[in-house]
Amino acid sequence: MFAALLDKIVAHSPRGRRALGWLRGHRKTRRALIIGLCHVIGAWTSVHAVLHVRTSQGAIAWVVSLNTFPYIAVPAYWVFGRSNFAGYVSLRRHNKAELNDAERKVAHDLFAMRPAPADEPAAAALLEKLAKLPATRGNHTELLIDGEATFRSIFAAIQEAHDYVLVQFYILHDDGLGQRLKEALIARQREGIRCYVLYDEIGSHDLPKSYVNELRAAGVDIRSFNTRKGDANRFQINFRNHRKIVIVDGRTAFVGGHNVGDEYLGKDPKIGPWRDTHVKVQGPVVLCVQIAWLEDWNWATGDRPALNWTPVASNGEDGIAFCLPSGPADEFETCTLFFLHAIASAKKRVWIASPYFVPDEQFISVLQLAALRGVDVRILVPEHADNQLVYLSGFTFLPELEKAGVQTWRYQAGFLHEKAILVDDYCGIGTANFDNRSFRLNFEITLLFSEPATVQAVESMFATDFARSRRATAADFTDRSWGFRFAARLSRLMAPVQ
């Protein structure tokens, strides 16, 4: 690659062509010049890494590799190295600068639905500063455990739509469940219900064009998130839109861990039973979810469809709910700060379920501190991860966590994919994993609840999952072979890109 680049550079002038002819006759000199050029580019790129990589550990790793192995590290850096989503930030600022009267009214109406100060969750002030969205009262919540319950409820809501259906998934497969979703949307579109579908092109890399074309032919507006939109993002495939959202008429929303694929119904024989959790919400918090969807849609398409923006309390319900979108276009590391605050402020318990548990040092420390304070800290992970690096890395955390009193549980009854957290008297269900990708690189969304009935339902769900799990100990790592421990430690070095 670099040799071809050198040929193009020097071949544009007679002097360059003479030099090129001479170099072709002196292969060792040419090789040395190419190697030198690679290292110059690597050194220049390492300056960019020092200035722009968010963490010192990441910057050090990139600088060392860019100057040692620039032939591999330079293209890898420009694909995987950035932590800020160019373009999305400026689009968000532009949209805020051009808020119309209707949008200002939406903001006013949402903040008018805030609970009384005495009823607000303890973290409400912090979360509102991070998300720029308020906690709201008047919400109804329904916990949806596993795929059959989740998609039964989603399809029923789509069937009851009166105006529009908004769909967003990280993974969209053309299989049995994908076909059911396609047929449901086409049927509703033909009945005059506006249907919009947004999917991540990396997560849905195997989605055939025929699937997309069939939806478009029926009038459904389906788009990819378009991660590489804009010149600055042309080679950037490291950011992902990991959100899973369905919204009906601005009145009902679904958020959680399920994507669209038969494996999420437990029908993949290689994976087996699939343990996951979604949540259905009704009330003002739906409009907060809709704001997150609209920002993503606006980035992907440049369009902002007419939607319902009138907040309405759910009949007979007064639950407090909060929507926390997060992503690489945020001013702060929203997802990181939320989890750090949740763990650091816990007084009684912190229960976390995540299929990808790959914490960095700051999270190891805050989990240890919580356990040492006497907080009941439990981590629930799958027995067998679907990512070998994650699986191996997970063993290395056991000794560090166990000595502080943190419990690790491994789910036995299938593959655990849910993303849930229970802290004292509030809980959260969303799309964020406990890893660097969700904390810094993915667009995620989490719904938080302090309503006692919802907290009790999540507590019962955790209790059932713990009963189907085994307690992992430090010996699971320390008693393994030297080769396994080395492979696990080596995998942990790759934690930032897992």
From TrEMBL:
One of its GO terms (cellular component) is plasma membrane. SMART domains: PLDc (SM00155). It is found in: Cell membrane. The keyword Lipid metabolism applies. InterPro entries: Cardiolipin_synthase, PLD-like_dom, PLipase_D/transphosphatidylase. Its main location: membrane. SUPFAM superfamilies: Phospholipase D/nuclease. One of its GO terms (biological process) is cardiolipin biosynthetic process. This is Cardiolipin synthase. It comes from Chthoniobacter flavus Ellin428.
